[in-house]
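Structure first, sequence second, as always.
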């Protein structure tokens, strides 16, 4: 139920596909040639801002535990900035051209339970090379969510609404163990010798993050709380009373610091989940079979990235908070392009899509998130309970979709895929499709 022949499905000639490839190569060359001081200042200022927000949040939590709620929000903001706009993009090599060892893909270790090395393999290599290819891109549902009908329904799929909530809340741990691929080990497709080094590296990184957020940070808060509460009890001459006051203050500060860290991580996890899912799983994002890799050219790879990604609209704040991944189409076309260049590139990409009659999947953030959640809830059910046919559903289409609607294909000539898909969409059942 996935796409086998991208060029034919896209209603493009071989010459069209190659021309698209030349256009994208030219876009990339132009933006790389013009990188300079302004781009470098963008990432350096962002890193300083992120570190300042994180430091102030932690200091405020330590000295004013009553502010644990607000500081959890600002600490969560710092983690979002570090993970999405800084860590993810630095590890893609977007800023390697600066030759700054502190902002280099080979040196950066992000504020996340997943080790950078594992993320760069599972994400930078596997996902971005085999984008949306069934059986090769594990990002399609992350191994636990049925996001396409190509994934077989099992009785455990009935728990998908609960699994989805847990995945969002613990998203950093899903990322952490993603490259370990424990599922392959337990099913005998991966040896212990292959699994062990990745598992141990991940466990070490998880331990480091847990110690930082839930041991070291609360310990500092507890020490400060002990001193502050103890000093307030000096009017009482009894040392035992002052000590008891200090212990009480320490416990209170430790609890508040741990709560702030837990809240910050939860905020970051849910937000990262939402951003990533909105860029990969809204309606009409295509999936592909392994056959698309047969002699795939660079131009065809570009075309697969366009059809297999989605954007969401928003202002400057939303753009930064999403790590510029609201331009997911452009990020997939140019994964190591500095993120601040994706907005101007998007205007050029959308124009190319219009010229060649290709869909440019973009909508508001709430709309894309709603479509993703609707698909997840819908695919909790076996296929026999779904209303839309398997060749023309919002979450999946096949090459032969137009053969089922000859009246649509007859009016869909070269460079008319977007027009044809718009007609097909009107033929879908409207209730839960």
């Amino acid at each position: 139920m996935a796409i086998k022949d991208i060029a034919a499905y896209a209603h493009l000639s071989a010459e069209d596909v190659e021309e698209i490839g030349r256009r994208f190569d030219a876009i990339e060359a132009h933006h790389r040639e013009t990188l300079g001081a302004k781009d470098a200042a963008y990432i350096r200022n962002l890193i300083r801002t992120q570190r300042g927000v994180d430091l102030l949040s932690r200091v405020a939590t330590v000295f004013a535990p009553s502010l644990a709620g607000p500081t959890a929000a600002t600490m969560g903001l710092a983690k979002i900035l570090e993970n999405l706009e800084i860590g993810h993009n630095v590890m893609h090599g977007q800023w390697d051209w600066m030759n700054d060892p502190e902002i280099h893909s080979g040196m950066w270790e992000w504020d996340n339970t997943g080790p950078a090395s594992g993320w760069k393999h599972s994400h930078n290599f596997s996902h971005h090379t085999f984008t949306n290819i069934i059986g090769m891109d594990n990002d399609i549902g992350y191994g636990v969510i049925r996001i396409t009908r190509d994934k077989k329904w099992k009785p455990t799929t009935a728990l998908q609404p609960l699994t989805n909530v847990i995945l969002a809340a613990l998203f950093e741990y899903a990322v952490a163990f993603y490259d370990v691929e424990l599922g392959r080990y337990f099913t005998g497709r991966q040896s212990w010798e292959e699994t062990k080094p990745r598992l141990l590296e991940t466990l070490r990184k998880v331990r480091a993050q847990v110690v930082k957020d839930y041991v070291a940070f609360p310990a500092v808060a507890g020490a400060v709380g002990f001193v502050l509460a103890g000093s307030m009890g000096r009017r009482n001459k009894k040392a035992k009373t002052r000590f008891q006051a200090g212990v009480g203050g320490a416990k209170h500060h430790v609890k508040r610091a741990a709560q702030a860290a837990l809240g910050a991580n939860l905020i970051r996890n849910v937000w990262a989940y939402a951003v990533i899912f909105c860029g990969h799983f809204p309606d009409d994002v295509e999936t592909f079979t392994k056959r698309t890799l047969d002699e795939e050219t660079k131009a065809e790879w570009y075309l697969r990235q366009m059809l297999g990604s989605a954007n969401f609209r928003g202002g400057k704040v939303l753009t930064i908070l999403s790590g510029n991944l609201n331009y997911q189409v452009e990020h997939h076309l140019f994964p190591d392009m500095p993120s601040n260049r994706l907005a101007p590139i998007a205007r050029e990409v959308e124009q190319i899509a219009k010229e060649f009659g290709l869909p440019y999947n973009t909508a508001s953030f709430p709309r894309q998130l709603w479509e993703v959640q609707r698909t997840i809830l819908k695919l909790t059910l076996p296929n026999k309970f779904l209303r839309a046919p398997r060749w023309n559903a919002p979450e999946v289409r096949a090459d032969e979709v137009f053969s089922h609607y000859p009246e649509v294909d007859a009016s869909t000539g070269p460079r008319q895929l977007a027009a044809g898909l718009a007609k097909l969409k009107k033929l879908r059942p409207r209730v839960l499709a």
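Margin note: The chain is about 60% helix and 0% strand.
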